[in-house]
Design a protein that fits this description.
Shape: globular
Number of helices: 8
Radius of gyration: 19 Å
Strand content: 15-25%
Distance between the termini: 40 Å
Oligomer: single chain
Number of strands: 9
Strand order of the largest sheet: 7-1-8-9
Helix content: 25-40%
Length: 231
């Protein structure tokens, strides 16, 4: 078993691991037990009562965080020449098509979001093995395959995030930076939780939100009382 560092021991001593906290309390605890020298991300882990192996129980979606993500989002738009100016005006960091497809095939994936158009999806689809594992594959369900590329770029830059339940039934996503004011972290977390609750599949039986945990990069997880986040 790995030996705990002095700071890890201090962090664990500052809260009760067996207790469930309100969302507001949990955020306060996480801010208090974060010792990283960099501005750590605040992460949300939501365990759902779904079987993601079944298509009718898959939970995925997107949400625009009211206070943004706190990080610079690099956006690539794979589009036809007539859409390049729209992408540029909206603030896309990169835009084009064949040249960037060639770069990606060569291993370049130095972006956070890729937006494309329905008409060029056959070309983009060939990049699935590269983009899929990195969570960069555009998808109509998350608004990253659209004719309104300018709007999609604006939303991505404003703090739109995508989330998807993994094979263990857990949604893991970053919702803020530790440097954010507590109320802004709570607002962002609540926005994500509300979106997840609204996406409850009709086929899901029993308890939908089984557990919620808040943590930061390298901090212990703090359990959240699911009653405190119910709509």
């Amino acid at each position: 078993m790995a030996k705990l560092s002095k700071k890890q021991k201090e962090a664990l001593a500052k809260f009760d691991k067996t207790k469930v906290y309100s969302l507001e309390e949990a955020v306060s605890v996480v801010k208090d037990i974060t010792y990283t020298k960099f501005d750590a991300s605040v992460d949300l882990d939501v365990r759902l009562g779904v079987d993601p192996r079944k298509a009718n129980q898959m939970v995925r979606g997107s949400v625009t965080l009211p206070h943004g993500t706190g990080k610079q989002v690099r956006v690539l738009v794979l589009c036809t020449p007539d859409k390049e100016e729209e992408a540029k005006a909206a603030g896309a960091d990169y835009y084009g098509l064949d040249d960037y497809i060639a770069k990606i095939k060569g291993g370049w994936t130095d972006v956070d979001v890729i937006i494309t158009m329905p008409s060029v999806m056959p070309k983009v689809g060939a990049l699935g093995k590269i983009l899929g594992p990195r969570g960069l594959m555009p998808n109509p369900k998350t608004g990253t395959v659209t004719m309104e590329v300018g709007k999609a770029v604006t939303e991505a830059k404003a703090g739109k995030i995508d989330f998807k339940v993994d094979k263990f039934g857990i949604i893991h996503t970053a919702v803020a930076k530790v440097s954010f004011e507590p109320n802004k972290i709570v607002d962002n977390a609540r926005e994500v939780l509300q979106a997840i609750i609204k996406l409850k599949p009709a086929a899901a039986k029993g308890t939908y939100v089984k557990s919620v945990t808040v943590s930061s990069t390298m901090s212990p997880g703090v359990k959240v009382d699911t009653k405190s986040i119910s709509l």
